[in-house]
């Protein structure tokens, strides 16, 4: 399954890659996957959104996983905790823009495309490849080598 969590509030100090947020969010993703028995294939932590390619054991565990992970990420990025409500920190109750986008990946081609897309986002976030509108279609052969190489 390909999963995307996006927040327009994740700017500046609330960004997923600001300071220690990146390490804490990446470890939260890995630990939550381990807790719920989710096989994490690949993930990309971008500035205002996160891509996950994962295999879920059941629909019920997917629901628990997404509730837990989205809450953890919102608390890490915003600094919310007991006594410091999210609404007081960011000015609204919802940290996330929408429900998580999810797509069931079917077949080898869909699997390859989803993994390439997550890897492309990771390279763009790291500044290795510049961001462009055409996404996977506009890559040069050298950029394809970066995307397809194991990381």
How would you describe this protein?
- It is a single chain.
- The protein has 151 residues and is of the alpha+beta class.
- It has one domain (2-148): Alpha-Beta Plaits (2-Layer Sandwich).
- Helix content is 46%, strand content 15%.
- It has helices at 21-36, 59-78, 86-90, 107-126, 141-148, and strands at residues 2-6, 39-45, 49-55, 101-103.
- Strands 2-3-1-4 form a 4-stranded antiparallel sheet, sandwiched between helices.
- Strand 2 and strand 3 form a beta hairpin.
- The longest helix is centred in the middle third of the chain and has 20 residues, at 59-78.
- The chain is globular and about 50 Å long.
- It starts with a strand and ends with a helix.
List keywords for this structure.
Alpha-Beta Plaits, 151 residues, four-stranded antiparallel β-sheet, alpha+beta, 46% helix
Indicate the topology:
Blueprint: E1 2-6, H1 21-36, E2 39-45, E3 49-55, H2 59-78, H3 86-90, E4 101-103, H4 107-126, H5 141-148
Antiparallel strand pairs: 1-3, 1-4, 2-3
Helix pairs in contact: 1-2
């Amino acid at each position: 399954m390909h999963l995307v969590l996006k927040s327009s509030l994740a700017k500046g100090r609330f960004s997923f890659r600001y300071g220690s947020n990146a390490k804490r969010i990446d470890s939260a993703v890995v630990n939550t996957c381990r807790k719920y028995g989710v096989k994490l294939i690949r993930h990309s932590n971008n500035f205002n959104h996160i891509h996950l390619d994962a295999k879920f054991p059941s629909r019920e565990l997917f629901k628990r996983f997404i509730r837990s992970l989205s809450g953890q990420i919102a608390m890490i990025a915003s600094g919310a905790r007991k006594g410091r409500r999210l609404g007081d920190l960011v000015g609204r109750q919802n940290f996330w823009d929408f429900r998580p986008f999810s797509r069931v990946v079917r077949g080898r081609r869909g699997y390859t495309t989803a993994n390439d897309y997550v890897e492309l986002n990771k390279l763009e976030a790291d500044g290795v490849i510049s961001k462009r509108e055409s996404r996977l279609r506009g890559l040069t052969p050298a950029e394809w080598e970066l995307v397809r190489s194991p990381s």
